[in-house]
Amino acid sequence: MQTKAFSELFPLFNTAAPETLEWLLSVAVDHEYPSDRAVLMEDAWGNAVYFLVSGWVKVRRLSGEDVVTLAILGRGDFFGEMAILDESPRSTDVIALSSVELLSVSAQRFIQTLFKDPQLHHRMLQLMVKRLRQTNLRFQMRHQPPAVKLANTLVGLGENYGESTETGTEIFNIPFKDLANVTDISVEDTTKIMGKLDSKGWVKINPARQTLHLTNLKQLTHLAGRI
């Protein structure tokens, strides 16, 4: 991957020096995984930072037989950065929702890069604050009606990872159980609400292509209370 394409794909690097990008790409390791494959096991956190070149993954919390999806990440995002700074054990793993391509940079090399490039270091802090704000927003919405919470999740996925098409903003067709988990509502509510959104023409699922089109993002944004 060329440095320009890399910086355009990953907002983390849009202010990094060209030599920083060249060096990172020279030491990065490419990985490819099919859907449903474990991308990162719970005992491997802290070894590297992972950059999602294509595809979708979910971050799960493991507690005995209980498995809960905490986050859904798409193309252009990254994970593992917190674990290289905090060496506490993790009870989470990362699973591919679709076929994915990742680039990994070892923890030691990534930390070296942060110290060498102050612009990258500053940008990293900005994105971590953004994630904290998103977590706070999710907490603030815990008492909102299920439809409002689900609309907020869909709008967030569309804004962060969606691709503009003739039929609306396209995202991966997230399984309802995972959507329910990250939205903090029941699977039953998720199924019912998605059915209503489909009947209104606000979303459209294409099972053959495993895509979900947000066909009326304006109405979804209004329902989510963002306007």
TrEMBL record:
<protein>
    <submittedName>
        <fullName>Crp/Fnr family transcriptional regulator</fullName>
    </submittedName>
</protein>
<dbReference type="InterPro" id="IPR014710">
    <property type="entry name" value="RmlC-like_jellyroll"/>
</dbReference>
<dbReference type="InterPro" id="IPR018490">
    <property type="entry name" value="cNMP-bd_dom_sf"/>
</dbReference>
<dbReference type="InterPro" id="IPR050397">
    <property type="entry name" value="Env_Response_Regulators"/>
</dbReference>
<dbReference type="InterPro" id="IPR036388">
    <property type="entry name" value="WH-like_DNA-bd_sf"/>
</dbReference>
<dbReference type="Pfam" id="PF00027">
    <property type="entry name" value="cNMP_binding"/>
</dbReference>
<dbReference type="InterPro" id="IPR000595">
    <property type="entry name" value="cNMP-bd_dom"/>
</dbReference>
<feature type="domain" description="Cyclic nucleotide-binding">
    <location>
        <begin position="12"/>
        <end position="131"/>
    </location>
</feature>
<dbReference type="InterPro" id="IPR036390">
    <property type="entry name" value="WH_DNA-bd_sf"/>
</dbReference>
